[in-house]
């Protein structure tokens, strides 16, 4: 609710109030090791594939679904990164689950959703699975997200940091269902399409309590000068930026993931 200032004027409601409260409770000044990787790719094959699959299946497949399916296969083929740290021990994820960020209320809030075993699903399968979930989150009818939001909104500010740490250990560390969330709610890798917000690229800030080893930001598609067959041509380009936990991911792992993503996004039909 909006309150009143000392002058009596009504203060406007702060956008994304819950998200900001959680952010304050989550992050301290960065001291943890992170590794970053950036890749720019020709988006032509992905865009052509999306158009073909939409026409063939009727599913509203997007670039995000294609990238998520590719990321699932990449962490399957580079299993060393598919892990989390729990009480100082490295523990493997059993499946290649991919989390997705859902934009709510024009970016004022975000919600996570997760596709289990994304490496075994086509982009159309992922789109089909996510459609009703996104509708529930954006309409406010998703019971789990409502419960999580209600708990977080009513906790005193001083309890949020220890509360998130405990919830993270229980839900993201051990994989228990609790507080309106299923175990491992952000998956073994997390994809967020920042391009829908108008950003060409972004470096995502990891959520410590989520214990996700790799975050991938999908930027906006822009025309760019690319070299194709020795000639400079104008093609649509997309920039992918990864932020990873350096305890689990090093340069060799990042290089293998990038190679996998490049190969799959150059021929997305291989994921059908």
What this model shows, in words?
By secondary structure, the protein is of the alpha+beta class. Mean pLDDT is 88; it is low at 10-15. Strand 4 (98-104) and strand 5 form a beta hairpin. It has one domain (32-271): Chloramphenicol Acetyltransferase (2-Layer Sandwich). The chain is globular. The strands form two sheets. Strands 1, 4, 5, 6, 7, 8 and 9 form a seven-stranded mixed β-sheet that branches. The protein has a two-stranded antiparallel sheet with strand order 2-3. The chain contains seven helices and nine strands, in the order H-E-H-H-E-E-E-E-H-H-H-E-E-E-E-H. Helix content is 37%, strand content 23%.
How many distinct beta strands?
A: 9
Mean pLDDT: 88
Query: Can you tell me the overall shape?
Result: globular
- CATH topology (fold) name: Chloramphenicol Acetyltransferase
The CATH architecture would be 2-Layer Sandwich
- Structural domain count: 1
Amount of beta strand: 15-25%
Q: Assign the structural class, choosing from mainly alpha, mainly beta, alpha/beta, alpha+beta, or little secondary structure.
A: alpha+beta
- Give me the Rg, rounded: 19 Å
Percent helix, as a range, is 25-40%
Give the name of the CATH superfamily. Answer: Chloramphenicol acetyltransferase-like domain
Low-confidence stretches: 10-15
Largest sheet: 7 strands, mixed
Number of helices: 7
Order of helices and strands: HEHHEEEEHHHEEEEH
Distance between the termini: 48 Å
CATH class: Alpha Beta
């Amino acid at each position: 609710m909006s309150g009143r200032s000392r002058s009596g004027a009504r203060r406007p409601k702060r956008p994304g109030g819950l998200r900001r409260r959680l952010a304050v409770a989550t992050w301290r000044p960065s001291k943890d090791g992170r590794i970053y990787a950036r890749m720019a790719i020709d988006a032509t094959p992905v865009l052509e594939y999306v158009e073909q699959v939409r026409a063939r299946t009727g599913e509203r497949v997007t670039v995000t679904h294609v990238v998520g399916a590719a990321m699932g296969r990449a962490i399957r083929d580079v299993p060393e990164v598919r892990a989390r740290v729990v009480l100082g021990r490295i523990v493997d994820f059993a499946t290649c689950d991919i989390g997705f960020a859902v934009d709510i209320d024009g970016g004022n809030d975000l919600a996570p959703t997760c596709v289990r075993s994304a490496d075994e699903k086509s982009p159309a399968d992922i789109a089909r699975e996510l459609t009703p979930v996104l509708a529930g989150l954006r309409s406010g009818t998703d019971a789990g997200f409502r419960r999580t939001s209600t708990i977080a909104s009513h906790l005193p500010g001083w309890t949020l940091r220890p509360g998130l740490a405990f919830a993270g250990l229980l839900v993201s560390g051990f994989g228990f269902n609790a507080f309106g969330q299923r175990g491992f709610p952000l998956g073994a890798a997390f994809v967020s399409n920042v391009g829908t917000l108008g950003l060409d690229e972004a470096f995502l800030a990891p959520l410590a309590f989520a214990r996700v080893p790799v975050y991938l930001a999908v930027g906006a598609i822009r025309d760019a000068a690319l070299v194709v067959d020795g000639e400079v041509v104008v093609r649509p380009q997309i920039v992918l930026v990864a932020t990873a936990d350096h305890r689990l991911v090093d340069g060799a792992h990042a290089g293998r993931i990038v190679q996998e993503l490049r190969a799959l996004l150059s021929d997305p039909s291989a994921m059908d």
